Each structure stands twice: as C-alpha cells, then as structure tokens.
Amino acid sequence: MKRQMTGAQMVVQALKDQGVDTVFGYPGGAVLPIYDEIFLQNDIRHILVRHEQGAVHAAEGYARSTGKPGVVLVTSGPGATNAVTGLTDALLDSIPIVVLTGQVATFLIGTDGFQEADTVGITRPCTKHNWLVKDTERLSETIHQAFHVATSGRPGPVLIDIPKDVQFAEGSYVEKPKAKISHYKPRMKADIEQVQDLVALIEKAERPVFYTGGGVINSGPGASQLLRELVDGTGFPVTSTLMGLGAYPASGKNWLGMLGMHGLYEANLAMHGCDLMINLGARFDDRITGKVEAFSPGSHKVHVDIDPSSINKVIRVDLPIIGDIAHVLEDVLKVWKSRGRKTNTAAVRQWWSRIDEWKSANCLNYTPSDTTIKPQYALERLEALTKGHDRYIATEVGQHQMWAAQFLGFEEPNRWMTSGGLGTMGYGFPASIGVQIAHPDALVINVAGEASWLMNMQEMGTAVQYRLPVKQFILNNERLGMVRQWQELMHGERYSQSWSEALPDFVKLAEAFGAKGILCKDPKDLDDAIMEMIEYDGPVIFDCLVEKHENCFPMIPSGKAHNEILLGAEAEAFVGGGALV
Amino acid sequence: MLMSPLKIEKGASSQSVYALRDPNSEVEEKHTLAVLVENEPGVLARVIGLFSGRGYNIESLTVAEVDHTGHLSRITIVTKGTPAVIEQIKAQLGRIVPVHEVHDLTVEGPSVERELALIKVSGEGDKRVEALRLADIFRANVVDSTLGSFVFEITGTPEKIDAFADLMRPLGLREMARTGVAALARGSE
Could you say which of A298, A495, B2, B121 is the most buried, measured as most Cβ atoms within 10 Å of its Cβ? Predict the structure, then answer.
C-alpha cells in the first residue's frame, strides 16, 4: 500500500530515504510547510546559514569532504537567485548538490507574484538538471531522481522547485527503490581495446606524465588508491590540477606538484616536453593549457573522462577513453600486470633526470624577511604546524589560493576544498563550515584573502551559532592581490580599484560575533599565533598581515605556452635567467 | 545509441573531397541532427540554451511529439560548424539529462530532408499567370486564392524552397512561413 502524505512530508521522507543527515538552508514564505516538517523531526539536522549563497557553498564543502551529495533548502525568488552563484560553482567543479527551492503556488506562477522568480529558467544553464514539480504525486519520485542525477556519471548540482500548494497537498509517496531513474545511466566501464591501447603506450613511453584532475577525486577514494598503485608501479611522474590535489600524495616520490598557470616549473615543463600524456579526469582547462596551439606539442595524448563532451573540447587527443576513473584504472592495472608490468625503464630514468634538473630551479623560492610576514612563509609555517592533524583545507580565490596549492601538501583525497572552475571569491568560508559540520572533530582551516573573506563574512553568525571551530586564516595584504599582480605585470602598474581603504579590524569583528580574533604581523610571533589558533576550541579569525606587494610565481601569462613560464627573481637567479626548453 | 565522438567514418562529409573528414579542418560543414528527447517542459529551452550559451549556430529547428505513449519528442536541428564543433555539439546534446538519443543524419548514412513552406504571392495579369505556372513546375499547391493573390504550399528540400521563393520574389512575393527541416534516415532501420 502506498503511503499518503503531504508534499512537505514527502520532502523530509525522501531526504531521509536518501540517507541525508544535514540540510543547509534559510527559511522563507514559500518553503514554510517544509520547515514545519523539519521542526517536527530529529533525523535531519538543519544548519541555518546567513545567506543562501553560503548555504550552497557549505553544501559543496560538505559534499567534497564526504563524497556524499550536499543538500540545500531555500525559499523562492531571492532565496533561489542567491543560490545561483553556488550552483554555477558546483556545476563547473562537478560537485553533487541537491537544492530544493520553494516556489509561489502553482496558480500564482506567471503572475509576478510576491517573491516569484522563474527559478527553473534562471538555473537551467547552471544546473546539471532541474525540475519544477507541479503535482504532489510526482514529488517524491522527482527527489529520488534528482539524487540519482546529481551523483551519477559526472556529478553536478540539481535543483527541484516546489510550489507552496504542492507542499501542502497530499499525494502518495514513492519509495526510493521504486523510483524510475529514467534512462540516465552514464557509462562506467571503458572499451577493453582502448584500455589495451593505453597499456601499450605505457609500455613504450619514454617521457610519460600522468595529468590528473578532479575526476579522480569524484570517482571515490578507490580511484585514488588505484592511481597510487599505477603511478608507483610504473614509476611515471604525476602532476595534478588544482581540483585533483590529494589524489596522489604530496609526499609521494613521483609527485611533481600542481601544474597550470601558477603550477610548478617542473610540472609544466614535464607537460610541455612529454611524449605520453595520460589525462585522468581533468579537462584541459585554459588555466592548464595556456596557449592551446603550443600545448605539449610532441606528445601522444590519452584522455580518460566520464563525460564524452570533455573529449576534444579544447585539446584534440589521440586516445579517448570514456569511463569512470576507478573502473578504467582497475582495468588498466589488470591488463598492465597481465602483460608483465613493462615500462621503458631506461628512458624513463633519463626523463626523470631531466625533471630533476627542472626541480633544481626551486621555482617556489622567495625572499624571506625578518620584518614582514611573507605569505609563502605563513603557509609554510601553517603546513609545518598542522601536518599531523586530521586536517581539511578550504580556500577563497586569488593569490592565497595559489600559494596554498603550492605550499600545503595533501596526502589524501577530499581534504582540499577550493573553487577551481568558477573562481568564486567568498567560497571558502561557507565551504569550511560545511566541512566542519561533516567532520566535527577535524581541524578545518580556510586559507583566505581579506577581500574574498569579506564577501561571505556574514557566515560568522553560522559558525558561532553551531560552535564550529573553523579557523579563518586570512593572509591580509589589504589588496586584491591577484588583481594587483596582473595590473603590475600586464597593465602598466595602474592599480585600478584593487585595494580597500576601509578594512575592518578583524579581531574586533571576531569578538563582535562572539568568536576569537588573533592579529599577527611579526614573523617571529607567527608560530605561537598559529598554535594559539589551532588550540582554541571555537571559531577563530586569524588576521595575518602579510607583505602587500608579493607576486605569485611561477606564472604562465594568459595566452602563453608552458615553456614561456615566468619565474620569480629568486628562482630565475638560480637557473641563470629565463625558462628552459 | 552511444555516441563515439571520435569515430571518423568513410564519406563522412559530402563537402569533403577526401574519403575521410579531417578532424582539424577549419571548413564549416552543415549537419542535420535528430535528437530524441523526453517530452517534458523546458526540454526545448535546454537544447536552445545549449546552442546560445556555447555559441553554436542553429540554421533550422523543428520539434514535435513523435511518440505519445513513450513520451518522446523529436527535435531536428540543422547546424553549421567545423568538424570539431559538430562533434562537440553532439556530445553536449548527449549530456542533457532528458536527451535519449542524438543522431547525426549527415554522417550516419543517406537521409531524406523535407521542409514545408507557405508562400503568399500577390499580383495581377501576366505575373499571376507566371506564378501559377512556376508553382506547377515546382509541384506547389494553391491552398488559398483571391483575385489578387495566391498562397502556395510547397514541400521539398530547403534548397528547392529557396529556389521557388527566389522565383516568386519578382512576381510579388509578400510573405513566407517555413516549418524548418524534418529529416529521417533512409532504409529500413
């Protein structure tokens, strides 16, 4: 017998059946029936954010640190439009998010009712899929379908728009196993012939490189394990995009560091000079490729991706393999082992000696200072003092984000939350809240710039309300650092609108919210201050005043090739000026 | 049907003088795509939004439900782009959740394409007679007539309709409505 219930009850029931334990949200007129049901139960915890954008980023942080979909509940109109940035962020970074929005009653749709917006119209291009449910009978099944779509294939955000009368009306509940998950069944396993072709390439390659991306993380922890086995087995060097950090451990012997616009010299030159590039779940983003025509000119390119539209979108590849990374890696390992674990050892050894030369450029070198805190130094100390902890790092967007990617090491997947594709300033703080909710005992740090951090600073209220000990590690240069850097290097040092003349006193700001504030401006005090931050049981705003005019190197200027990478003065002095190759 | 974006088939393009299409070619080709979609609200907006959002061309687009019980609609799109862009369009279409199948009729084998147009021509005397005579040659039907005008109904390839319209222009073409291309693969499959 089918269970009869109201639409609002269905929402809560369906979330429970999907294993949801946490919802990030903000109430409003058009979702009140659902909030009423949330009030009447104890299985699902609702986290009240301070802005809907914060809800979506928090759900993203939750999703990325757990591998489970993040769930958001917001009201119609402004509630939905405020969620748009988060949805777009999740779409570009392939993060599974289910957003439930209230909508005006069906009979009011199209009348410009109060807090009415065409939510499915507005969010169509920034969701993987979305639904307007006009009939309570269809509601529970749609929610089950939404979870299926969000989490299968290439993950992404979905949205369900639920008019208020649909929430009030009664209908019959469709259980999760009975829900038709339609025809949407993305392909997981690749053709075995292609896997064999890849193994043949691996056996012959003289200058191979693994180029890994967020797809390895999204494929689950198993994919990271298989990647490690393949990389260590073959002895090939491995680099990763910003999104893929942690899939291969930073302490691993084959690790080259991140590649791309602010990637490491050795990683970018290895990409440029390789003869076999094995792309695992990355998408040849423009921050990775630089000038497309000059991208890795002499290599045979293999691209493994679950999304067929990623193949040949930017870079034409020689061997496309459509499938889930874990499934493909498992097959590759099986075939490679069965054929005798062969590689071109002598050539690969030679390749490594070239790479080691590039490494000796020490591209992350910077000029230390006794008087001002260099941002790189701050991150080196943060890394040293937090390494042993059960640590999760979120970031905002800008110079600090790139420095964090360069100077912090990630040993495990799902430990690194950053807005890669969309580059959303204001992402990190709410994301750190989502991570802390999912991992209450972990050390969660948001490495931030002061400008990004201010974009969602209202979430201090959330952090304090739920006693979340998130650490806001703000590298404060009183500038939009990355904008300033580009203006210095590419716009004749005309610093148009790239600094703030009215920054808050972050210590007082923390105290105003009932949190702890720490100010540090002397490198000699830094270690003690960081320890104080770590040891404090509660949210901390750490205002770290850093060098104001530091540039982030290496840097591949936009539109240039990998071998036109710019190094900082310190590193260039070391290799005798200019980039090699 | 699973798409294989890289499969380059023999004679893939009528515009190419070579048996194989060069994937790096910068020459734009016209392709007719048949897209089978779930007949649900917003699905057409998704398809059109994909084309506008990613900067692809739509030369013609038709849509109608073709399977009432199966809840399926067929969208026929004529688009233009380099081979790489066409492959990308197909892959992007295939990624839309309510899209069931994407067929490139231009590549997959011989196909028939037809379009219907209604063309209003007004004129008198010799011009009126000439319009009627040409309509006969083109096998266009008269579906409305007054003492000073005709509405012709013509079916054929887009090129045939273009040719007919060009001939009608000096004879007093007033207005034209076209359905866009409908297309099917030839043969029993």
Answer: B121
Is residue B9 domain-resident? no
Dist. CA A168–CA A177, nearest whole Å:
25
Q: Which residues of B touch A120 (CB under 8 A)?
A: 42
Q: Which CATH class is domain A192-359?
A: alpha beta
Question: Which of B2, B91, B100 has the CB atom closest to A309's CB atom?
Answer: B91
Residue of A402, A455, A482, A555 marked catalytic: A482
| Domain CATH code at residue B178 | 3.30.70.1150
Confidence of residue A1 (pLDDT cuts 50, 70, 90): low
Count other C-beta atoms under 10 Å from residue A255's C-beta: 18
- As a whole number of angstroms, the distance between CA A513 and CA A528 comes to 24
- Across the interface, do A312 and B95 touch by the CB < 8 Å criterion? no
Task: State the residue range of the domain holding B127.
Answer: 112-185
DSSP A142-180: HHHHHHHHHHSSS--EEEEEEEHHHHHSEEEEPPGGGS-
- Non-local (6+) Cβ contacts of A372 within 8 A are A521, A523, A545, A546, A547
pLDDT one-digit tens code per residue, B84-129: 999 999 999 999 999 999 999 999 999 999 999 999 999 999 999 9
Residue A39 is a catalytic residue: no
The domain locations on chain A are 3-178, 192-359, 375-545
For residues B110 and B189, the answer to whether their CB atoms sit within 8 Å is no
A149 contacts B38? CB cut-off 8 A: no
Regarding the domain delimited by A375-545, which CATH topology (the fold level of the hierarchy) does it fall under?
Rossmann fold (3.40.50)
**A128 and chain B: CB distance < 8 Å anywhere?**
yes
Alpha-carbon distance of A293 to A565, in angstroms, equals 16
Has A236 been annotated as catalytic?
no
- B41 to A182: CB separation less than 8 angstroms, yes or no: no
Residue A164 falls in the annotated catalytic set: yes
Specify the CATH class of A3-178 in words.
alpha beta
Give pLDDT, residue B24: 75
Q: What is the pLDDT of residues A332-373, one digit of tens each?
A: 999 999 999 999 999 999 999 999 999 999 999 999 999 999
What type of residue sits at position A13? Q
Q: Is A473 a catalytic residue?
A: no
Whether the CB-CB separation of B49 and B19 falls below 8 Å is answered with no
Q: Show which of residues 175-204 on chain A sit within 8 Å of chain B, judged by CB atoms.
A: 182-184, 187
This prediction has a pTM of 0.93
A132 close contact with B: CB closer than 8 A: yes
Residue type, A47: I
Asked if A132's CB is within 8 angstroms of B41's CB, the reply is: yes
A115 flagged as catalytic: yes
- What pLDDT sits at residue B2? 42
Q: Do B92 and A312 touch (CB under 8 A)?
A: no
